[in-house]
Amino acid sequence: MSVAFRRESDDEHKEPEFELPIPVGPNLVTERGLTLIAEKMAELKAAIAAETDEEVRKKLHRTLRYWSIQHATAQVPPPPDDGSAGIGSQVTIRQGGKTRDFRIVGHDEADPGAGLLAFTAPLSRAVMGAGAGELVAFGGKEGAIEIVAVRP
User: Fold this and answer.
1) For residue 77, what are the contacts with CB-CB under 8 A and spacing of at least 6?
2) Can you give the residue ranges of the Transcription elongation factor GreA/GreB C-terminal domain (predicted)?
3) What is the mean pLDDT, run by run of 10 residues, along the chain of 152 residues?
4) Side by side, which strands form the sheet with 135-138?
5) Predicted TM-score of the model (pTM)
6) For the chain, which terminus, N or C, has the lower number of CB atoms within 10 Å?
């Protein structure tokens, strides 16, 4: 019989499961973000303890490893003391005649629909370090965004 028709087990043809990717760079988070990571880890540990299916447990352990790394590497930077935008700041901007509010947060806490932008998002990067009343470049245009207010 040809080797092509022999198979030791079904597991031979499964795709390997890689670890969940960790974002590149520092893992900056807000106090809220650090709390959310700890809560997620507690949920996963409880789910692992209650789970009887070995495949599901493996997936839960994989996810727990991701959150454990995120927790271990989390850094909560101090808020800027000069009134400029930074991690954790609530920022109000005016762009193209429209006003918009958002908070600058860490990767895992980001939810653009809820007004939570990761510190690596282009808009967050554009306003970080700027204060109320300043005009900043965005999208290749100088002065495209006016910082209306920055709150800690």
Assistant:
1) 28, 86, 87, 88
2) 83-151
3) 55 68 88 96 96 93 95 93 92 94 95 96 95 93 94 90
4) 116-118, 98-105, 90-95, 141-151, 135-138
5) 0.81
6) N
